[in-house]
Amino acid sequence: MTDPAEWYRNIPTVTKFWFTGCAVTTLAGNFGAVSPFMLVFSWPAIWHGFQIWRLVTCALFMGKLGFPFLINLYFLYSYSNMLETGLYDGRTADYVFLVFFCWLVLVFIAFLFDIMMIGVPLIIAVLYVWCAVNADQIVSFWFGTRFKARFLPWVLLGFNVLLGGSGIMELLGILAGHAFFFLKYQWPAEHGGNDWIPTPSFLKRWLPDRGPTVAGFGVAPEGRRPPPQEVRRDWGQGRRLGGADE
Length: 246
Description:
Blueprint: H1 4-9, H2 13-30, H3 43-49, H4 54-57, H5 67-85, H6 92-113, H7 119-133, E1 138-140, E2 146-148, H8 152-162, H9 168-191, H10 201-206, E3 230-231
């Protein structure tokens, strides 16, 4: 059995800060350390009260404790971890910019539609990017269903609706994730255009690249793509969601 301390130390940097921030902020809001109403997005409070921390905490506070909270943390750990150690291995600045871009899109949407929390959409956005990069990889879901990774975000949306949810949070995450993937990878690959959202140079200087990297993975022509692999989701055995079978 993996030692919890060792497991936590091995989480990559960005995923570790994000995972810890969500856990601590949500627990603090639920156990009375801070009022939940001080954590959610409120433009009047931000603009007139200068409560700028809400811009961050609205993406970390996950609402009430329960099974959905644990599932969302699991999604965060799994897909953020796989992106940070896979496509963005050695490119911390690029991965920070991915999360920042999706956060910025969701904050703008929250401003327009008065949405109080964007934690779940931000996780779904990262999940969407992983699924888009690994579009043809086969994943297994509950009840033995199997399908290509590109459909996973939509399956999660539909599953949420079946459980009585609105699916709005998942839809917003899909929108933010697709905006990043389209501008960063799909448009340049399909139309020969430039990268519309390059990582700022100051961020590159602050977090310089280190080897090895796998730059370009997910945007190669079809002939260069690796063959689809089956991905299992065995919740009972604690296997990484979306991880490839051995």
